[in-house]
Design a protein that fits this description.
CATH class of the largest domain: Mainly Beta
Distance between the termini: 49 Å
Helix content: 10-25%
Number of helices: 1
Largest sheet: 4 strands, antiparallel
Strand order of the largest sheet: 3-10-8-5
Order of helices and strands: HEEEEEEEEEE
CATH architecture of the largest domain: Beta Barrel
Structural class: mainly beta
Radius of gyration: 17 Å
CATH topology of the largest domain: OB fold (Dihydrolipoamide Acetyltransferase, E2P)
CATH superfamily of the largest domain: RNA polymerase II/Efflux pump adaptor protein, barrel-sandwich hybrid domain
Length: 144
């Protein structure tokens, strides 16, 4: 077994242990040049402690009527207009075309991201305050 592979495997196991210890659904850590992003495949722990990384497939799989909303620019993702405000949307909320989903802060400007679709929010991908890159998934909307 390659030494680097063994080190990465150990790192992944330690991150997985942190997820279990703190009941986290996702964790994203930068160690040097490497970025590790782990997320549970479901809300219940898998018996074999399955996880996916940003280099692997996303979990869970999107259904046939799900449209993924992608970040139009790189910025910091916020679910609300201010820390004490209610989030624009949450999982289970119904949205209409034109509704504000979130804001992305880029170069001290807050850009409202509006929905191009009507449907129900089934997944919010990034965490509040997380940096997202252009083209990254923000939301999954199930169209009905």
């Amino acid at each position: 077994m390659d030494e680097r592979y063994a080190e990465e495997t150990q790192t992944l196991h330690e991150l997985l242990a942190l997820m279990h210890e703190h009941a986290l659904d996702t964790i994203k850590v930068r160690l040097g040049d490497a970025i590790y992003e782990l997320s549970r495949a479901s809300s219940e722990p898998a018996p074999d402690d399955s996880f996916s990384t940003s280099a692997g497939e996303s979990a869970p799989a999107a259904g046939p009527n799900v449209t993924k909303v992608l970040a139009p620019l790189t910025g910091v993702f916020y679910l609300a207009s201010s820390p004490d405000a209610a989030p624009y949307v949450e999982v289970g909320h119904r949205v209409e075309t034109g509704d504000v989903l979130c804001v992305l802060e880029a170069m001290k400007l807050f850009n409202e991201i509006q929905s191009d679709y009507s449907g129900t929010i089934v997944r919010v991908v990034p965490g509040n305050g997380e940096l997202v890159s252009q083209g990254e998934e923000l939301f999954w909307i199930e169209q009905s």
